[in-house]
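Practice problem: predict the structure.
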Amino acid sequence: MNSNKENSLKNDTPLKIYLGDLTYDTVTISAESMPLNVGYVAAYCKKKFGNKVEISLFKYIKDLEKSIRESPPDILGLSNYVWGKNVSYEMINVMSEIDPDVLNVWGGPNFPIDFPSQEKFMKKYPKVDIYVPVDGEVGFSNIVEHALKADSKKDIKQKVLSKPIDGCVSRSTDGKLQYTIPVIRIKKLDEIPSPYTTGILDKFFDGKLAPMMQTNRGCPFHCTFCADGKDEVNQVNNFSTQRVKEELDYIVKHKHKDTRNMIFSDLNFGMYPRDQEIAKYISDLQLKHNYPDFIYVSTGKNQKEKVINAIKTLKDSMPLWMSVQSLDKDVLKNIRRDNISTDHMLALYPAIKAANLQTRAEVILGLPGETHENHMTTLRELIQARMDEIQVHTCMLLDGSEMGTPNERKKWKLNTKFRILQRDFAELSSGKKVMEIEEVVVSSEHMSFDEYVDLRVLAFVIYITNRGTVYDPITKFLKEQNLDIFDYFCKIKDDIDSAPKSIQNIFKRFKDATINELWDTPEEIITNYQKDSEYQKLLSGEAGINVMYHFLAEVTSQFMDEWAEYILTTANDFLKNSIQNNQSWEKKFNDIAHLCEGTAHNTLGKDRMVTNPEFDFNYNVIEWIKPTNELSLDSFLLPSPIKISFQLSDEQFKSVQKTLEMYGETIVGKSKALRMISSTNLWRRPVIKKSINPSGHKSIGSTDNVWYDHD
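Answer:
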C-alpha cells in the first residue's frame, strides 16, 4: 500500500516515521500530558538526520489509526507504559496487517528487567521488532541510522534486524533476541534539542492536554515496586536551568487559553539546589500570567528542608508529596526503601505549615511483609503527623520493577488479581474493544483478602475526611480534647449503620466495587468486555472505575452535606463517649460543625455560586483555624455572635470550571479533575458579614464581603 517501499533510500524521499504516546479519550482524557517523551526522541532524530527523516507525532488513538491506514510509515515507534500498553500493541498489530514491511518499535519503562522475562515478553508480543528500554533517544536513533543504510525501503526491516543494535533489544530475522548494550543514557541532556522551542509539540497545545516539563532524569532510590528503581536509572542527569526557563517561557506564550495546569515528570523535584531557582521562576510566571494554577509533580523523598524551600513560593499550586509508602522498618527494608528518612520527613510538620504548604502522603497497601497491624500503624502515624491528604494505593506489579520479577513474587508469596485501569478503554474502527489492565496485590502470607478489603474501606474514610482544610476544624478540635484522630476515623468506618442512607449506600457500593473489580486473568477481562452490553458498563461508569477516585467524586459532587452530617454526628458521639461530665465543649463544637458545613457545602454544583450558607458564630474560628495558631478555641470567644457567609470567588469558580470542562462533568471526569484542583480553589471561604473586634484580639475585618483565606 505504500508506493515508496520500492524506492531507494539514496533518493530525496525521507524516511517516514510515526512516533506515538497514546492516550484514551473515550469518556475523558486519560493520560493528559503532552507527548514530551516521543518529542525528545523526534527532536534528537531530527538533530542527527535532518531532512533524511520525516517525523509525525501522535497522542490520540483515532488520529494514529487513521494515519497508518491511509498513509503507512516506514517506522512506527510507540511508547509502552502501563496505561497505554495494550492500545499501543494493538496499533502495532493493525500496522502489521496493513503493511508487514513496516518496522515496529516499542519503548519505555514497562519492560521486564530479567532476561527470561524479557524473552517471554517478546514472545507474547511477536509483532514487536525492536524494544528500546529506558531512555529512548540514542537507541531509536541507532535504529534509524541502520534503516537509512537500507538499499530500499522494502528492505529496512531486513537491514535493521540483521545484527544487534546498541541501546535496543531486537528480534533477529530468525526470531531470536539480540542484545549488545541494552541501555544507553545521555548524561548532558541539553544535547537533546527542546521539543518545545523547536516547535515540535506546537500542535498539542490544544486545550485538552497539559504541558509536561522535565528538568532532570533518573532516581537515586531503588524502590522495588517502581520501574524507576532499577540500577540503570540510578544516576540523575539534568537539563540546564536556562533550558528549563526557556521552555517555561515558551509554554506560557503558546498554551491554550483554557489550559490551567502543568505536569512535571521529575521524580524528586525540590531535592536538588537548583530546583529552588526553577520554582521561583515558576512563581514569577504565576504572578505575571496567572498560570499554572496547579502543578502535578512528585517532590523529593529525602532532604525535605530543601524541598520546602524550593516550593514554598508556589504554595498549594505544588503540594508537598510525602511518598512514604510504609512507615514499618521491615517493610521498608523489603522494598529497598530504608535509605529514605521517614522520621525526619514527618518531623518537619512545623516548617511545612510555616511555609503554608499542603501535604499529600502516599501509602501502598499490600507491600512485601505488610500486615493489617503495621499498615494500621502507618496510617495512625501519618495522621498524627497531620498530613493534609493521605492517599492509599493498591500495590501494582509492573513489568519494569524488581517486585514484578518471578523471584520477588515467589519470595514474598504475593497473591494478585487483575483490574481495568480507569478511563483506559476504546473501541477501534474494526469494532474491537481494547483496554488497559493492571495486576495488583490483594493478599499475601502476611495479609488476608478480608483484611485487604477492610483497609481499603478505612483508606476511603481517611481520604475523604482528611483532605486538608475542609474538615481540619474537627480534627484540630478533637486534638484539643486530647483525643486520637485515628480512632475517630476508625469509628466513622465502624459506625456506618448509623449514617444517612445515602452514605450507607456509598459504603456498600465502595466495598462491593473493591471486590468486584478484581479478575483472575487479563484474558477474562478482555473477553468479557468485547460484549456490547458489558462494554456499555465501561462507558456509563458502572464498571472499569478507579474505585477510590470514583467514590471520592461521588461524595464531593453529590453528597458532601450528607457526609458532613455523618462525620460531625460521629465526632459528637466520640466526644460524648470520651469526655465524662464535661459539657463545655458543646457550644464550641457547634461552631466547629458550622465551619465544616459551610466550607464543604455544594462544592461542584452548577448553582454553587448562589448557594452560600450563613451561620452565627460565638468564636473567632477564622483566626483559630490558621495553621500558625497554637491557642485553643477557648482563647477566641467573641463578645457577641457574628455572622459568616461561605462563598466561592469568581476566580475559584473559573479555575475549577475550566478543569471540569477539560475532563468532563460526568463522575468519571470529575474523578480525574479532582486530582488536578487545589484545595484553595475547591472549598468555600468564609466572608465576615459583621465587624469583629474582640477585646484583647486583633481585628480581623471591618467591612462586609472581605475575604479571609483560612487555608
